[in-house]
Amino acid sequence: MYTVGLQSAADAFLLSSLQVQVFLALCILFVLLVFGVDGNKVDNGSQSPAFLPGSHLLAIAPFFQKRFEFLNDGFRKTGQALFQFNMLRDTVIVVSGEAGRKAFFTNRGFDLTEGFKVLSGAIPVVKGVTSDLQTRRVALIHKRLSAAQRQEHLTQLINPLLEDCRRLMEAWGQVGTFDPFENIYELLFQATVRSITSEDIANDAAVVHRLKRLYDILDNGTTPATVLLPWLPAPNMLKKLWATKEIYGIVSRAVDNRVASGEQRNDTLQMLVDAKDERLVMVGFIMGLLVAGARATGTAASWLITFLGNNVEWKVKATQEVDRLLVVYSSQTKTMAPSERLSAIPLEAWETETPVLDAVIHETLRIAQPHTAMRRNLGPDTFIDSKLVPSGAYIVYPFSDVHLNPDIYPDPWKFDPSRGEAKVPFGYLGWGGGKTVCLGQRLARLELKLVTSMMLLGFRYSTVGANGDLLDSPPRPNWNDTLLCRPEKGTCFLRYEKSTPTL
Fold first, then answer.
1. Per-residue pLDDT at 25
2. E strands within 22-144?
3. Which of 66, 99, 328, 427 gives a 20 to 30 Å CA spacing to 19?
4. How many other C-beta atoms lie within 10 A of the C-beta of residue 58?
5. Which DSSP state fits 292?
6. Strand pairing category for 175-178 and 493-498
């Protein structure tokens, strides 16, 4: 793993010539050829999952760059519910089907942290802060995330979240067209900053914009080399190193300033300070959860708003549901701004009286969360569907195996919030499954409902193509884009017009 202590190296290589960058690329190729030999295939006969045909060296890039196609192609080529390939010196076993799901989500020896650390690579890595954490520190971070979602804290967040939404939406103007995977994502990034960090950061638009740009560098710079060979000073690795160092600086300064000032604020950072957590726990909590929350919730919100823009029936249902809440809980007239009226709705109503919004969120997560869960078998050798999963092997399970399965969800790409619950074990994984579920889902649901309600009340909008014509059907989520699931750039926009004088 890389550390922030290599800043001087990063600066030097980022300014390096094309010749230097080509040399580094050749170094990477050499290392892959040396370590990526096919000689470490171990076949245990009928007990072993089928090996993916061909050189496993050729499997590395597709796994990171076109994972959805790569995994589907693996199942097709092997004709098996499980198959394996080598990631340099490591064995990776891909599982599917009901037996695979059950084993994957219930085996206590399958460790999420180890699997995610090696096979993902799109988080800011600072040893002892966001990686290589002791079990005690991980448990403490989980405890603090639970505290950040208590009734009182979430209730206090509603007004600031709506105000952030109002401010950013007002900047769009009266009419126009925008890319939802930029503008809506920006709304959710701001919401996550507000919910997870501090008032000082969330109130500074320039700092929030810089944080988003830095996290974008981490996302865009994730390559097979940066994940598998993080010690190699390739250009993308150095860009990620620089971005991580900058993020660490922003967060750590906010923590240090708060502690030194002794002032009291009503935010998540204050909760961490009051609990007298270690400095590294506070910094790690914010750095890690900020990117995790912004990516997942931002992706969901972008697609949710897009789907509703192409589905009049469900957009009307969702709008009517919000209007009903306003009739019950808001005494203010319709001449008041939507953000003011929505702030009168209590948290309990948002959580228990919005079945339409719940159904829309549920269906959006099914279609547009291109997740591949990752684990490492830290327990003894085990079997899945009569196939050996050796100790130390990495195991991956693509959510598409269930969420896009036509036998479980007929016409799986169709956005249909009226679908009933799947009748198979682990038939829905929008918030995770088994012993690993999304610990921040209460906050995520609230953010999604507030942003969606502001959009429904504040704008008349539709989904259009590049030529401005209404789309006959919504764009298909790109599951090869493993982080954000965006459609092809330039193919989908929202055309909008404000429906109220002020938001």
1. 55
2. 50-51, 82-87, 90-95, 110-111
3. 66
4. 11
5. H
6. antiparallel
What lies within 8 Å, CB to CB, of 134 at 6+ separation is none
Residues 317/356, Cβ–Cβ less than 8 Å: yes
Q: What is the pLDDT of residues 241-288, one digit of tens each?
A: 899 899 999 999 999 999 999 999 999 999 999 999 889 889 988 998
CA distance 147 to 168: 28
3-state SS class at 321: helix
Burial 61-99 (b: 16+ CB within 10 A, else e): ebbbebbbebbbebbeebebbbbbbbbbeebbbbbbbbb
Q: What pTM was computed for the model? A: 0.89
Antiparallel, parallel or unpaired: β 459-464 and 493-498? antiparallel
What is the C-alpha to C-alpha distance for residues 127 and 141, in angstroms, rounded to an integer?
15
User: Residue holding tokens 């007929």?
Assistant: 410
For 122, 128, 136, 264, 375, the CA distances from 133, given in Å and listed in that order, are 17, 5, 8, 29, 17
Rounded to 5°, angle at Cα 372 from 47 and 76:
55
CA-to-CA separations, 233 to 1, 127, 131, 345, 475, in angstroms, rounded? 12, 18, 19, 52, 38
438: CB partners within 8 A, 6+ apart: 296, 431, 432, 444
Specify the amino acid at residue 358.
D
Q: Is 440:429 a contact under the CB 8 Å cutoff?
A: no
